[in-house]
Write a structure and sequence with these properties.
Blueprint (H helix, E strand, L loop, with lengths): L10 E5 L4 H10 L5 E6 L2 H13 L3 E6 L5 H14 L4 E4 L14 H29 L2 E6 L12 H22 L3 E8 L2 E2 L14 E2 H13 L4 E4 L1 H12 L2 H8 L3
Parallel strand pairs: 1-2, 1-4, 2-3, 4-5, 5-6, 6-9, 7-8
Helix pairs in contact: 1-6, 3-4, 4-5
Length: 254
Amino acid sequence: MMYRSKFHPTSILITGAAGGIGAALARVYARPGVHLFLGDMDAAGLAALAAECRTLGADAQGTEVDVTDKAAMAAWIKAADAIKPLDLVIVLAGVAYGAADQEETPEETRRTFAVNLEGMLNTIEPVLPLFRQRGRGQLALMSSHGASRGFPIAPSYSATKAAIRVYGEGLQAWLQRENILVTVIIPGFVETPMTEGNDFPMPFKVSAVRAAKIIQRGLARGKPRICFPAPINIGVYLMSLLPRSWVDRWVAWK
């Protein structure tokens, strides 16, 4: 049986939490009665964020952890769940490389696949048995409108975000029968440390705070997909209707 009313999690784990959308989500969820388990490799950023969330009334703990370390991720998730059984796990940790005038290196390509895909699996795999034991839980996976096709600036980023979207969609139907919700988040451009160095146009960019509020509302409703902002949603749809050769010429900025 799926949730019939809004889902109000009280034990939330977030990867990639120290900045950007992750930090904004931590602040949005921070309130009395909520446990926040925040993971990232930025120890100083985590400490400051956890302290801020505690001033908002939450019980917040920051853990320096690398999502590509399978054993460390499993240990962290197990320890967090032992403190307070997890309701919601938000998989945000990700990287992107490349620029309009510079290709991503082979090392950057492999790093992107490791963090974005292996990091996702290293988070999901320890969580699912816990959710299944309790017969409930919610997973949120971060894809991107950049997954709509392979973009030349960062082809590995597009590829990994496409894989996350399709994997999440497959999990949705599979886990629904076990009362486990899976949401795929598909944002456009968001003001974060990852995007601030981009040297190409980013139309309809929204703030991390705005993005976090949209995501929180969508997760509370158990939406299978959260796409924003609306103009980008429309633009991506229209692009899908155009001949591929036209789109290839348009996106080949270099």
